Amino acid sequence: MHQILLFFLMGILTSVYSQTDKLKPSGPLPENGKDDAAFHYHLGLNYYDGLGDTPNYAKAVTHFKRAAQLNHPQAQGMLGQCYRNGRGVNRDLEKAFYWIEQAAKQNDTIAHFLYGTLLATGQGSPLDYKKAMTYYLKAAAKGHAAAMNNIGALHEQGNGVPRNYVEALKWYKMAANMNLANAQCNLGQLYASGRGAVPDATEAVKWYQKAANQNHPQAQFLLGAAYYFGKGVKRDLVKAHQWMNLSANAGNPSARLHRGAIANKLTPQQAQQANDQIAAFQAKHSVSSPASTQTASTTGTGFFITSQGHLLTSHHLIANGRKIEVRTHTGNYDAELIKADASNDIALLQIKSRTTPLILTTQVAPRLGQSVFTIGFPNPKAQGISSKYTEGRISSLLGLKDDPRLLQVSMPVQSGNSGGALIDEKGTAIGMITLRLDDLKTYNMTGSLPQNVNYALRSSQIRGFLATIPLVQARLPQPKPTARSVNYNAAIETAQRATAFILVHD
Fold this sequence. Notes:
Elements: H1 33-49, H2 57-69, H3 73-85, H4 93-105, H5 109-121, H6 129-140, H7 145-157, H8 165-176, H9 181-193, H10 201-212, H11 217-229, H12 237-249, H13 253-263, H14 268-285, H15 290-293, E1 298-304, E2 310-313, H16 315-318, E3 323-328, E4 331-334, E5 336-341, E6 346-350, E7 371-376, H17 380-383, E8 388-396, E9 406-409, E10 421-423, E11 429-436, H18 439-446, E12 454-458, H19 459-466, H20 470-473, H21 488-498, E13 499-505
Antiparallel strand pairs: 1-2, 1-13, 2-6, 3-4, 3-13, 5-6, 7-8, 8-9, 9-12, 10-11, 11-12
Helix pairs in contact: 1-2, 2-3, 3-4, 4-5, 5-6, 6-7, 7-8, 8-9, 9-10, 10-11, 11-12, 12-13, 12-14
């Protein structure tokens, strides 16, 4: 049975949003109100993610409430999410709606999407598909893939707008091209049924495959069915059982109903082959887990610089590795080392996947005191495997011992941040986190411990390295001089998609 999949960002928004009581936002902020709001918001995120321990949602709520009262839009959104999910506070959809609405009024992209979702599902308010469409369109205009998918769903269902399969296909395709699994599955079903386009079983299978590779249970079921009936692909009972079994294991009731019938048609050799393929898929595509993280000899961070899977990281991180694994929001991939420069501590890797790149620029010189941030994976064995955001400022235009290749930054950097992008307020990569002062060595030399003294390799050095690789150089995205200023929240969201977790195995 066809199923429309409205995309709900429940668990994966933890680094963007949290919770609160229905306290009215305050009026004009005190002189230090902005800093106070940001402090409480980020402290709330730390408690939400867990500080080397299990998350403390109750403490997170306390800080999100304070920041929300100070009109911090992301804190208001996170507070709404906590009320929506019952994390650290009793579940209350009316309060969830209230706080997400406050964030949406401040033109926050994520809040626009969440507000639209609440309106489209009647959570905390009456159903209002037309108003939901308005807010989905606002989020989609800023590149929000899930909003694009949900616009497609409204057109397909005829909710709030006349039913229009051509429009549905258009919006699904936009989101699917951004690698959103729900949209890929929805798009495949339109092609399979001939709604909005000429029926094309081969095109349907192509999109099912893309979503199935991201562990999408419904797409895995449909892909298994396609292999079983030979629609859009050559009939293959082994692959049919593989995908049906993966879908069933993920809880899909239709797959559970049919996998036994398919299994009964297999020979013992075919059954073993299917099991081997299932194991291989799970090893390659399953989401990151703390257990597998424990087996890596070294972990760190990288960031994509092209849409063809090229990413940068620190050379010292991967120098002695036998196997390099890259984990993104779309899955796990084996990485190929393209080129390295040990003297500048830089390495270029590539994975076989479409990726979201950061713009790496040298057009604007970094400024002393400039605000910067990074996203990385510090101390994953203690702090967990979700990405962490930290911010600071450029404290010196020279590096260790006045090294002109480096910038000194005053942001918290820990083991595992190496290889992460140093990003400015517009979302542009202006460097790469490369090292921090060693506490013990510095104490031995100076008699005091360093306080947030860390270094980043300048983007000019990185561009010089990439200039020796013309194929990659030609694929670097270029800034658009006429583009309007980028919303800071959108910059963080893009940086999250462009940041990868690096695991190195001996």
